[in-house]
Write a structure and sequence with these properties.
The protein is α+β, with helices and mostly antiparallel strands. The protein is built from four helices and 15 strands. β4 and β5 form a beta hairpin. α3 runs antiparallel to α4. It starts with 6 loop residues before the first helix and ends in a 5-residue tail after the last strand. The mean pLDDT is 97. Bound molecules: magnesium ion (MG) (2 copies). One magnesium ion binds next to β7.
Length: 251
Amino acid sequence: MIIRKSQKDIEQMQRSGAVLAAAHDLLATKVAVGVTTRELDTIAEEFIREHGGVGTFKGYQGFPAVLCTSVNEKVVHGIPDDEPLAEGDLLSIDCGVTLRGWVSDSARSYVVGGTGGSEAQRLIDAAYDSLDAGIAACQPGARMGDVGHAVQAVAEAAGFHVIRKLVGHGVGRNMHEDPQVPNYGTAGQGIVLEPGYVIALEPMIAVGTIEIVEDEQDGWSIYSADGSLTAHVEHTIAITADGPLVLTASA
Ligand code: MG
Ligand code: MG
């Protein structure tokens, strides 16, 4: 069942999203060679708390941190640790904020040390471009397949591949609500997007195989099956009568 949000609900979610965007903006200034993902997690947790929110991920099904930090072949759900980031690492940071009971969810990807022109940077650029294309397709009356198709077309035109076993989701008072939001699809198919729907659109794209494997030791991390690079970016988006409203955009 898809829970439709009122305009007031969406305004509350936008407040949550603003804290999350500001946390990501702060993290963006901290990602550097030699920094650990645990340090980034501490920075995010303190910032979110100072702004009246709670990190949604921490404690979710036992997850131990407020960030998911996924390096290189890790796709999503990496647990922050004490390994210093290295020059050229592809770091994806996913974070959720709960503010006054409303959840926002957003992810960004970086090349550590800012290695422009690398394959990692091309992959990240394609991920953001595919997200932008998907957001543009989030029009009232459009279909979910239009969104997935838009994401997929941009990622594949750049020479990369869309991971299919992991998808986006509705979001609201809970982090994971209906509907599922695939990053692939056929235009004109799927449910109709109606004003009041709020979704987390989160392309996960790979240089190599789209097959994934779970880490049996930590119980969380998900890797590309061939060890190739992956990138993950995400925004929380409200469908409004006027079109898509990105709730996790920077001010
Ligand atoms: Mg997320
Ligand atoms: Mg999500």
